Amino acid sequence: MGLALAKLAQWTAAGHGAGTLEITPLNEAILKEIITFVESFIYKYPQEAKFVFVEPLEWNTSLAPSEFESGYVVSETTVKSEEVDKNGQPLLFLSVPQIKIRSFGQLSRLLFIAKTAKLKEAQACVEANRDPIVKILGSDYNTMKEDSIALNILDKITRDDDPEREIKKKIAMLLKQLDRHLLNHSLKHISLEISLNPMTVKKDIELLKRFSGKGDQTVLESIEYTSDYEFSNGCRAPPWRQIHGEMCYVLVKPHDGETLCVTCSAGGVFLNGGKTDDEEDINYERKGSIYKDLVTFLREKSPQFLENMSKQGISFNEEQQKEKDPLSEAPKKDEAAAFHKDISGSDKRSLEKNQINFGRNQMTKRLEPSLNWKTTVNYKQSKGSVKEIQEDKHTGKLEKTRLSVSLGRAQLRRKSAEKIEEIISDSSSESEEDEEPPDHRQEANADLPSEYWQIQKLVKYLKGGNQTATVIALCSMRDFNLAQETCQLAIRDVGGLEVLINLLETDEVKCKIGSLKILKEISHNPQIRRNIVDLGGLPIMVNILDSPHKSLKCLAAETIANVAKFTRARRVVRQYGGITKLVALLDCAHDSTEPAQLSLYEARDVEVARCGALALWSCSKSHANKEAMRKAGGFPLLAQLLKTPHENMLIPVVGTLQECASEENYRAAIKAGRIIESLVKNLSSQNEQLQEHCAMAIYQCAEDEETRDLVRLHGGLKPLASLLNKTDNKERLAAVTGAIWKCSISKENVTKFREYKAIETLVGLLTDQPEEVLVNVVGALGECCQELENRVIIRKCGGIQPLVNLLVGINQALLVNVTKVVGACAVEPESMMIIDRLDGVRLLWSLLKNPHPDVKASAAWALCPCIENAKDAGEMVRSFVGGLELIVNLLKSDNKEVLASVCAAITNIAKDRENLAVITDHGVVPLLSKLANTNNNKLRHHLAEAISRCCMWGRNRVAFGEHKAVAPLVRYLKSSDTNVHRATAQALYQLSEDADNCITMHENGAVKLLLDMVGSPDQDLQEAAAGCISNIRRLALATEKARYT
Amino acid sequence: MGGARLLPWSRRGQPGSQSAAGRAVVMATPSVRAAHALVDGDLTPLPQPQGSRASREGLGSRAPRDPRRGPIPWAPGMNRKKLQKLTDTLTKNCKHFNKFEVNCLIRLFYNLVGGVERQGLIIGLDRNAFRNILHVTFGMTDDMIMDRVFRAFDKDNDGCVNVSEWVHGLSLFLRGSLEEKMKYCFEVFDLNGDGFISKEEMFHMLKNSLLKQPTEEDPDEGIKDLVEITLKKMDHDHDGKLSFADYELAVRKETLLLEAFGPCLPDPKVLM
């Protein structure tokens, strides 16, 4: 009756407030154990049974005095035992209803007397005596610590001089034994009642451990259990806490926060009260909301964890996927039940919950594209069997707590998701679709669709059949709708993938064909793709590419095309020599030997080449694969295939070329290999997809000037311009506008486009188009705008308004392009009026706050013509509250382009004296001076201009000198850029109005350099240089004069 | 995938105990080599320009053949004239082979048989010899199917395959169109020749196709189920048996079903 009892009693008391024991099977079992112990005590240990307790155990009994028989002195309301202690006090004293007992012997007897009421008596006794050990052995043992209880008892007793110490020691040991027995006994009950799944948690923690440690890249600094001892059921929580469903406690130290003490329970993961002062104990109270699992919990608690997780992302998920699959039953049940609840939810609360869960699920959906499976299952579940209702109840509690976290969390989640997205979109095309979707395995007991069982049966025949049975099973499997996720996952979940892949290793041609036909279909599913790679399917398929059977080659290549949609798969293909083999498939030069009639399982060479091109298309999304393809001699073959008239061949070929065109090597080869001609020709094809890929390829290649000219020479601009009018297919439109954008970098092309009225059409595309299209459209307009004539066209077509509207967007690439166009238009006063009216300048100005340096720079460049051309520019600029401060502070940027653009803007702003005064107050002089030490000619040019402008105010000239801007400026004169020379000479001329500056210039050898400048053909430069020299000279004269007079 | 194979039959060459292989391999070696020459030799490529090559090369075995294949020896006990005549007759009735090829096949046939017809004595490949060829050359393993193939070759039902049946059969085996092959396969599978493949026939043909699971109470359960699956897949008119029309439709949709009930055509891998 020690620890276990105390803890169990405590627990129930906490639940009820009053000090009563709840009638639960567990408590009952414990009481029964105690009863057996006490009952047998008198026989087993007669000596110890006589030991007198230090204090009596007291409780209110329901026994009547009349029930006591021999050995007791019975009166009407009292009973005394005949047995007495040394002092003659009876060992049992009952005065209705209170009873006091002072020995185990009496306790045993009482239980005999109680007969049927044993349980009740025992319960009452335990309830009334919360510290039985203290009462029995004395208060010396009151302060004992749980863990060391037995030791302490033994210690104390051995030191004791009490003559009874032997007995006391024995009793203490017995009690300790009982205690342990009770604990273990209760464990059994707990495991019956609560289904803990410590394995899942254990795996999670071990996994996290592997990714923890010092350093920035790890997800956590440390993670460890609070207790090293693991119970037989895998839990580490003490049994009286296991009863709550708690499995273990973990100390987690994230990189960005305090150590968290976390409870992992069957219901979820939550923050507990942390370690209490005396180190050993934990404050078990829940302090935070409940999360589904440890990873979810940490994601919420630690942004650093989230970030590093996404960095570690792939490998971690992969491992988790592997580790978790067979073990994740428990949390999944919860989720499924939650889903079920959502569907059947009738009360308001669950509706509310619905929304939260919905948000959640959407989040997860992004990462796991396939909830269909689950939802179908849940749909079936909602038919509602008794079992599910039970399950529902089981998770009800959990759901309530989840509710409490509500919106705040949802927002957090959204934020974190955005972050992840950013990371993904930042990386190149390689990482497209690279986040590994976590697996869904079917629950064992769920209500499965009938296809599942049918497929399972077929897989059984696949495994246990000979060739004939296998072919029949394969053919029959193809009758299922393999495009449907249910079937795809069913094949995997019943172990079909392993068999299908294994079949590929046999040399049964028919079986291989049948298997590949199925793999080809189901590999459209991203999860299946990953499973195929995990099972080592790719190397086998790569080997099949060598097969003499063409139809096998075709199917293998097509399957590879489907599987190689993610980086890891593409890498595997390359590592096993797949690229070379695929390239070899492209070679169908021996067309003439094609048999008139194809044999049974064969295919044409052209078909083989098409499949090879398809696979290469998928593979060519990785940089290394493009390289491998080039080395394998893929390019000439692709170029050759490009001349075929078959559209279904051209699409993968052009697709591959388009992917490869991102490489310099390929672009050069495309330019040299008359590829552009073919691409241009296919632009006029009837197939939209083909047109799209051709346009895309041109877009990729047209960065190069020669290529742009080739497009024009082969008459590609006209089809491009006419495709602009077909706006229904957005992908194609994006590709076409992209091609036009890049082509219009060449002036001749722009002229052509103007001829074809493409500019008008482009302006028409400024509204109601997806961003990918808009970026390209605006980019194209930006190139066209370099010519006055086109700017007029844009204004006349009403293009200014939609352009200014686009300034409020968030897409970085789009903003860069839009600002460029707006800036170009602002050069023209009439357009500027419109921009001003539409408040475009304000919009541009606010883009200076954009986090992307490209946008900032582009906006600042666009502001220059605006300020230059706006009427009453000074007043306008002043009207932007905080605007001047903002732009001056941008001088602290470390991006050279931003700095140059801001200097240019400041030059324009400083033309207004009042504004110059304001920016001087904002400290423009020291900021500009600090920039002076630069080698960037563009920055030097604009910086020098800005300095020369800013000299016009107050003692700014002197201030520039004080801030040591003069000496670096002198060095600018040694630059090779005339623009820099002119701007610098002007700045020096302004600065030379101050005597000290003249001295500095002279010291730095400015005079000689300026003398050279005087000889320049540039008049402004001549003038400024001469002015500067004259100032220096005048100072020298003045000094001499002063000296001699 | 270094692991153990899942499938019981993953490599060829371990025919079932009842297979012909064990019994007949030894006696067959010389003819087997010739038959191999036939399979991976001159007959598999495309039809040559008719006649020209044969006449150029004459009847001797001076044809430019791959050195690793031995020449087909002269048919024992056959004179040139007779062979010429036989070749001409058979070439007339054969659409997939040219004269030269037919000539080779005839010589091969007599080599396999070991002699030419004497007056009135019919000579040919008996069941065992033929089955041995099927097994060794064409990679067939199923006893029952091989018997059926023999019967399909043996058009006149006299218990042996004669030279004309030989050339005809091989023409279908090696060059047959899908239509011909369908007709032939259906004939092989239609055990009682009533024009339908009944459930019982399917059961009979498939009965060895599943590995016996010791746990299963009724070992035939799986086979019955497999028959049902096949019917579901192929029986388009739902009359519980396969007519040729059913079969043809199913095969046209999925060529793999051509040999649905057992391999009765040369294994594609031995043709390569």
UniProtKB/TrEMBL annotation, chain A:
It is found in: Cytoplasm, Cytoskeleton, Cilium axoneme; Cytoplasm, Cytoskeleton, Cilium basal body. Residues 353-364 have a biased composition (Polar residues). One of its GO terms (biological process) is outer dynein arm assembly. Coiled coil: none annotated. GO terms for cellular component: axoneme; ciliary base. Its main location: cytoplasm. Residues 319-352 have a biased composition (Basic and acidic residues). Keywords: Cell projection, Cytoplasm, Cytoskeleton, Repeat. Component of the outer dynein arm-docking complex (ODA-DC) that mediates outer dynein arms (ODA) binding onto the doublet microtubule. Involved in mediating assembly of both ODAs and their axonemal docking complex onto ciliary microtubules. Component of the outer dynein arm-docking complex along with ODAD1, ODAD3, and ODAD4. Interacts with CFAP61. This is Outer dynein arm-docking complex subunit 2. The gene is ODAD2.
TrEMBL record, chain B:
Keywords: Calcium, Metal-binding, Repeat. Residues 1-22, 39-77 are annotated as: Disordered. It holds the Pfam family EF-hand_7. Residues 141-176, 177-212, 222-257 form the EF-hand domain. CDD domains: EFh (cd00051). GO terms for molecular function: calcium ion binding. It comes from the Eukaryota. InterPro entries: EF-hand-dom_pair (IPR011992), EF_Hand_1_Ca_BS (IPR018247), EF_hand_dom (IPR002048), Recoverin (IPR028846). This is Calaxin. It comes from Callithrix jacchus. The gene is CLXN.
